């Protein structure tokens, strides 16, 4: 597995890969890799001749300094996991390499970032779009793989690519979960044992909410899940939104659109976790 830290070397090397007619698959990550990330790598390996993974904890997408500081960094074990997955190349730039100067680009995502993560984490998606666009320019992938775990991020990247005619095919990948249902996340390792024990309730409640569709009206469903979360003293409920899968705008009635997803964010102690479930597809 090749490891690169410099943009120019990465770009030049990948130019030679592409000149040989090889297709390039790309998996952007922030490291502290788990089976969710590896599933994206495996999907890319199946569909491309050459797979690149980036590990970069992107400072400009964190709206809280403490979250950036505490974000897990596990380079040695990440390398081992990537090597055994069969990944061909890792791109691991420094902050100075990626941002030698401050970037002020402001993206307009229409209504897509006015809800859920966008509403609760101001500037987050702008930072994500800046880094993803830059990574696409460096890596020049044919396909890029994004997890449905970050469903709103996926929608924003698809919008970014379409609006700017970026020649990359975005491939959505399913959420990988622990045996008890907790969606895998790099942040899970920072849960205390007690919080970790309670965390599976997030997906349990999402599943129960899905079982209530369509008998329980949309608004009542939101009220019900909030009350359920509030029964857990260690969980601080942030939002539960039932939205149109395409526009991400809240729906008021089940019949309003064809595909509906429920997205949730909660805090368990200091850790913020998100998850989602497709209610109607
Ligand atoms: P991150 O390192 O958190 O920025 O995530 C990198 C990529 O992995 C993103 O496209 C995520 O959506 C995806 N990802 C993270 N967790 C999971 C999971 N549990 N299942 C599938 N994909 C995931």
Note down, in words, how this protein is organized.
The chain is built from 11 helices and 9 strands. Helix 7 (124-139) crosses helix 8 (151-163) and helix 10 runs antiparallel to helix 11. The chain has helices at residues 7-19, 35-47, 65-70, 75-85, 95-98, 116-120, 124-139, 151-163, 193-198, 201-211, 218-229; strands at 2-4, 24-29, 50-55, 89-91, 143-147, 169-173, 235-244, 260-268, 271-280. The strands form 2 sheets. The protein has a 6-stranded parallel β-sheet with strand order 1-4-3-2-5-6, with helices on both faces. It has 2 domains: 2-173, HUPs (Rossmann fold); 186-276, Pantoate--beta-alanine Ligase, Chain: A,domain 2 (2-Layer Sandwich). The chain is of the alpha/beta class and 281 residues long. Bound molecules: adenosine monophosphate (AMP). Adenosine monophosphate binds next to helix 2 and strand 5.
CATH superfamily of the largest domain: HUPs
The coarse overall form would be globular
Q: What hetero molecules are bound to the protein chains? A: adenosine monophosphate
From the N-terminal CA to the C-terminal CA, the straight-line distance is: 39 Å
Number of domains: 2
Q: Give, in spatial order, the strands making up the sheet with the most strands.
A: 1-4-3-2-5-6
Q: What is the arithmetic mean of pLDDT?
A: 97
Strand content: 15-25%
What does the radius of gyration come to?
19 Å
Task: State the order of secondary-structure elements, H for helix, E for strand.
Answer: EHEHEHHEHHHEHEHHHEEE
Count of extended strands? 9
The helix content is: 25-40%
pLDDT < 50 stretches: none
Q: Do you know the CATH topology of the largest domain?
A: Rossmann fold
Oligomer status: single chain
Structural class: alpha/beta
What is the highest CATH level, the class of the largest domain?
Alpha Beta
The CATH level-2 architecture of the largest domain is identified as: 3-Layer(aba) Sandwich
Q: Enumerate how many helices there are, as a single number.
A: 11
The largest sheet, given as strand count, sense and whether it forms a barrel, is:
6 strands, parallel
């Amino acid at each position: 597995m090749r490891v690169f830290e410099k943009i120019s070397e990465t770009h030049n090397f990948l130019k030679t890969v592409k000149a040989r007619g090889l297709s390039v698959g790309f998996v952007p990550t922030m490291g502290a890799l788990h089976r969710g990330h590896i599933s994206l790598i495996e999907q890319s390996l199946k569909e491309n001749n050459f797979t690149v993974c980036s590990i970069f904890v992107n400072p400009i997408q964190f709206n809280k300094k403490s979250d950036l500081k505490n974000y897990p960094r596990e380079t040695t074990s990440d390398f081992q996991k990537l090597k055994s997955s069969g990944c061909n190349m890792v791109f691991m730039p420094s902050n100075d390499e990626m941002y030698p100067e401050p970037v002020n680009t402001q993206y307009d995502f229409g209504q897509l970032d006015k809800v859920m993560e966008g509403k609760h984490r101001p500037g987050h998606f702008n930072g994500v779009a800046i880094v993803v666009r830059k990574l696409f320019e460096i890596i020049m992938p044919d396909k890029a793989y994004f997890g449905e775990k970050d469903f709103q991020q996926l929608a924003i990247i698809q919008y970014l690519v379409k609006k700017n005619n970026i020649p990359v095919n975005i491939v959505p990948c399913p959420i990988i979960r622990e045996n008890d249902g907790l969606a895998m996340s790099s942040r899970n390792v920072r849960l205390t044992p007690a919080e970790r024990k309670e965390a599976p309730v997030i997906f349990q409640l999402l599943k129960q909410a899905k079982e209530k569709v369509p008998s329980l009206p949309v608004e009542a469903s939101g009220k019900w899940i909030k009350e359920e979360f509030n029964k857990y003293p260690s969980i601080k409920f942030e939002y539960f939104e039932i939205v149109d899968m395409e526009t991400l705008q809240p729906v008021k009635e089940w019949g309003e659109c064809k595909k509906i997803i429920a997205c949730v964010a909660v805090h368990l102690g200091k850790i913020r976790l998100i998850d989602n479930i497709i209610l109607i597809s």
